[in-house]
Design goal:
Strand order of the largest sheet: 2-1-3-4-5
Number of helices: 9
Number of domains: 2
Structural class: alpha/beta
Number of strands: 11
Strand content: 15-25%
């Protein structure tokens, strides 16, 4: 049974929520070894409901009521993951996502009442890592949070809980691409580019298997660790973002190729 809240009328941030945010920031500072999640929604009931669900799972939570407050919180507090609404005053979720991506690779899950496929594709193309529609299933939301944190903390660029020692790190090279599995960074002809945790895992999968074509469904199942269902758009958006970082001309890609009707591959002509 779905127990998530639907998107209700917008309301301004109240003093009680400000006190909650302050208390949560202090708690986060005191428990820096635990994952901290920022919940951003201008509907206080939804923000508090999501925060309580996550706190029951052992996470530290911070709350913000619009994109501007979210940026201020990220600047002043440690945050491992962001759950973000789209329709908010002052600064909407998509604009906030773009600003966050200018400096940070923190996983972003959009939680929105906008449910059209075009809305999801737009959110992912702006830099979000996942998209959950309202009304939401709490169990699904928690599962997606855990999945994103697992990639970010253990496979991504947070530098906090990486399970790979520098001695086990390796460099995967394909032509002018060099993927450092220790620092989780990609160097393109000597130029370093930042990758989100999801982008890193997709690129690592493809570069470890040059020439092999991976269907979108297989990429999704191996990267997201979930059963694939209608995932083409999700994978396509992340592939496009990777291309923008590693290709000189995205319309005529040198490395990351699409095999129409089948899937994606890293060209093996450099091997």
């Amino acid at each position: 049974m779905f127990t998530g809240l639907s998107h209700s009328r917008k309301r301004p941030c109240g003093k009680s929520n400000e006190r909650r945010s302050k208390l949560n920031r202090e708690t986060a500072d005191a428990k820096s070894g635990e994952a901290t999640i920022l919940v951003v929604d201008d509907d206080r009931e939804i923000a508090d409901s999501v925060a309580k669900i996550l706190e029951k799972e052992g996470y530290i939570t911070l709350t913000a009521n619009d994109g501007m407050q979210a940026l201020e919180t990220i600047a002043s507090s440690h945050v491992d993951l962001i759950i973000l609404d789209i329709m908010m005053p002052r600064l909407d979720g998509l604009s906030a996502t773009m600003k966050i991506r200018e400096k940070k690779n923190i996983p972003i899950i959009i939680l929105s009442a906008k449910t059209e496929d075009s809305d999801k594709v737009l959110g992912l193309s702006m830099g979000a890592d996942d998209y959950v529609s309202k009304p939401y299933n709490p169990m699904e939301l928690v599962a997606r949070v855990k999945s994103q944190l697992r990639r970010y903390l253990y496979l991504g660029s947070s530098g906090r809980l990486q399970d790979m020692s520098s001695g086990n790190a390796e460099m995967i090279t394909v032509g002018g691409l060099e993927l450092d599995t220790g620092s989780k960074t990609i160097t393109v002809d000597g130029r370093e580019e930042k990758l989100t945790a999801t982008e890193y895992k997709i690129l690592k999968l493809l570069m470890e298997n040059p020439g092999r074509v991976f269907p979108a469904e297989e990429i999704y199942e191996r990267v997201w660790n979930e059963e694939a269902y209608a995932v083409e758009n999700t994978v396509m958006v992340h592939i496009r973002r990777i291309r923008e970082k590693i290709e000189i001309n995205t319309k005529e890609p040198e490395y990351l190729k699409v095999v129409w009707g089948i899937g994606y591959k890293i060209e093996n002509k450099f091997i």
